[in-house]
Amino acid sequence: MNTSTFKGGIHLPGYKEGTQGLPIVLAGIPDKIYLPVSQHIGAPCVPLVQVGDEVKKGQKIAEGKGFVTAPIHASVSGKVVAIEKKQHPGGNFVNCIVIENDYKEEWADTVKPNSHPEELSAEEIRKIIFEAGIVGLGGATFPAHVKLAPVEGKKADYILLNGVECEPYITADHRLMLEKPERIVAGLRYILKSTGCEQGIIAIEENKPDAIALFQKMLAKEKNIRVQALKEKYPQGSEKHLIYACTQREVPVGGLPLDAGVVVHNVGTAAAIADAVEEGIPLIQRIVTLSGDGVNKPTNYLVRLGTLFSSLIEESGGYSGDVEKIIAGGLMMGKTVFTAEIPVIKGSSGIVVLKKTGKEKEREYSCVRCAKCVDACPLFLEPTTLVKLAKRRLWEEAEQNNALSCIECGSCVFVCPARIPLVQYIRRAKQEIGALKAKAKSAGGKK
Amino acid sequence: MMNTQENLLIVTSSPHIHSANSVSLTMRDVLIALSPALLASLYFFRFAAVKVILTCVVAAIVSEIIAQKIMQREVTIDDGSAIVTGLLLAFCLPPTLPLWIAAIGSAVAIIIGKQLFGGLGNNIFNPALIGRAFLVASWPVAMTTWISPLDGVTTATPLGLLKEGVTQGLPTLNQLFLGNVGGCLGETSALALILGGLYLLYKGHIDWRIPFSYLGTVFVLTAITGTLNGEGSWYPLYHFLGGGLMLGAFFMATDWVTTPITKQGRIIFGLGCGLLTVIIRLMGGYPEGVCYSILLMNLVTPLIDRYTKARVFGGVKKHA
């Protein structure tokens, strides 16, 4: 297989055997749905409904102001019983619209199929995508329509679909590619049309040979869409590294993929776009891999947004023993949550439940300058140097050493023999640099 | 049931998975890599080797405990680094060295070379080489009295003979390769050291850039001077195998703490070590230059790191 990749990075255990062969299962639809008003990057939404309102499936129940936002739709029909603060997979407390399911599954009248989707203009497609509340389903949750909007003086040469899924345990995109490849390709066509771009690439890591073969067969006669096999390496799914692996182009520091002439969407996002454009269905469900050694039956679920982690865990036969961590997302970049009573949101690609290891936490040594972090960093940073600067609170020096370029992939921490939580320090440095910049800006404004 | 479990959930910063890498595992691998040379030294120098090696290792461990207790730091002998330092120091000492001198060497290596700088990770110089340099300066005669292996007769090292201009009756290249010559305990057998070095390369603990650029530079420079002086093809090989070069190139110049963290920097480091070694050997007062060349390059490591910073992904190379 002709594979390409990026420089740096690490090799991880996959832990995908448990779920990669399991078909997607419809998860039980719960009695109550909890929809946070912020499930995307950008302005949070404001509820359009009040407690006591009846809502239908697919009805828009919250929307935000401005361009970088994504509306939220009811994922069941029923009654709004509360709007209250609830724990969010991101770790904070966020306003949630709580809907009591009436199990009538009635669609809102705004949801109707497009009889002639092929006749839609680029602008109409973008409007549909915006109205459907579609965000990056790989986990970044950046509103999809923003990436598709034309930018003066910049043109996309390629639309890249990200089917890499390099996080251990997670197989949601893999299953989607095997079970609904035609939806992904259809979505890609709408994306191409809405951006006026001619070339599409579907990028898949070589650990999913079945998906690669399937798309190669499907696209054998296509001239403008091709499959790109990629080496199995972490973080291959990072947007910048995916672009480099597929096109040998680098996104400039502080720039957007479009600056390299590329727009990247997740394969799941493409499928959701096809559903929205053809069927008029907004984003109300997603595929979630529930896995890890702490859960009895690891499963790929098709889940209504707002379903609690706990109800999925229960459906999977509960915990397999004493559980230590529940991770919203993957092992490398996911966030640990302190309760399972939190809802699946648009960005929830996986839930990993880990059993107690019984091992003591290893001692953190001082850095021994082995430079394994330097070799692993896919941004060519010196993580150890950044940590030393952060420990001395030298934020400006950290910025000069490109701290802001860090994508927090965790490769440096994975390889560090001294067990230093490098990303934690670098994250702190990034926050402080951001605060300094904001301060400088406001001081400049006062003058 | 669910609630009791939830109370016990742990919240940590990502990532939530770690490789098996650890400092103590690495030190264990370094000890494994040093074992062929250890066996060779025991074979060639017998009880003399046992005494010096044990003295150095025990003195290193005791010095580390005492220093850390006095400085009120956590005692970290379990990371294995003191054992490695003691062993490496012993490897670059003559077999006949009085044991009390060897013990002082270990104490200097650990206390002055390492703990005074802040302990493992913060030292500027290779601790074992600091110990050796201190001993060479303090007891020059004891540090340059050599015996030939197995029979224990007083002799000179191959490079010492070369320095004196001796051309007849030099040990053969074969002897140098296997280690059946006079010299420091652990550096006589090039074969044993190469085996250990290859193990470290295979395990990914050292970067090939340093030993290759170091050895390559020495080889090329001695080949050139050898040709200019009308020596045969044995001459560069003699420099290659005859002294502490293999021990230095694979085990001292690759020390994580005291060498550059950038890839380009490691090549410069190796080149510098090679150049200084050849200059000291051919033009300096000593027959051997590995120890000082590495110490001198340790000194410029921060500078090398500063001027060889990689270009950030998506950025243009900045000139510092």
Can you walk me through this structure?
The complex is a heterodimer of chains A (447) and B (320). Chain A contains 14 helices and 18 strands. Chain A has 447 residues and is α/β, with parallel strands linked by helices. Chain A folds into three domains: 30-110 and 282-355, Ubiquitin-like (UB roll), CATH 3.10.20; 122-279, Rossmann fold, CATH 3.40.50.11540; 372-446. In chain A, the strands form four sheets. In chain A, strands 2-15-14-18-16-17 form a six-stranded mixed beta sheet, with helices on both faces. In chain A, strands 1-12-11-10-13 form a five-stranded parallel beta sheet, sandwiched between helices. In chain A, strand 6 and strand 7 (72-73) form a beta hairpin. In chain A, helix 2 packs across helix 5, helix 5 packs across helix 8 (267-279) and helix 11 (383-391) packs across helix 14 (422-446). Chain A is globular and about 65 Å long. By secondary structure, chain B is mainly alpha-helical. Chain B has one domain (24-307). A two-stranded antiparallel ribbon of chain B has the order 1-2. The longest helix of chain B has 48 residues, at 23-70. Chain B starts with a helix and ends in a 13-residue tail after the last helix. Mean pLDDT of chain B is 91; it is low at 1-6. The chains are: A alpha/beta (447), B mainly alpha (320).
Residue-averaged pLDDT of chain B:
91
Radius of gyration of chain B: 21 Å
- The geometry of chain B reads as globular
Strand content range of chain A: 15-25%
Number of domains of chain B: 1
- Residue stretches of chain A low in confidence (pLDDT < 50, at least 5 long) are none
The amount of helix of chain B comes to 55-70%
Summarize the helices and strands and which ones pair or pack:
The complex is a heterodimer of chains A (447) and B (320).
Chain A: E1 3-4, H1 17-20, E2 25-26, E3 32-36, E4 46-47, E5 54-55, E6 60-63, E7 72-73, E8 78-87, E9 93-101, H2 122-131, H3 144-148, E10 158-163, H4 172-179, H5 181-195, E11 199-205, H6 209-218, E12 225-230, H7 239-247, E13 262-266, H8 267-279, E14 285-291, E15 299-304, H9 309-315, E16 323-328, E17 335-337, E18 350-355, H10 372-376, H11 383-391, H12 395-400, H13 411-415, H14 422-446
Parallel strand pairs in A: 1-12, 2-15, 10-11, 10-13, 11-12, 14-18
Antiparallel strand pairs in A: 3-9, 4-6, 5-8, 6-7, 8-9, 14-15, 16-17, 16-18
Helix pairs in contact in A: 2-5, 5-8, 11-14
Chain B: H1 2-7, H2 23-70, H3 81-91, H4 99-112, H5 127-138, E1 146-147, E2 154-155, H6 158-163, H7 173-178, H8 190-203, H9 209-228, H10 234-241, H11 245-252, H12 263-283, H13 290-307
Antiparallel strand pairs in B: 1-2
Helix pairs in contact in B: 2-3, 2-4, 2-8, 3-4, 3-5, 4-5, 5-13, 8-11, 9-10, 9-11, 9-12, 12-13
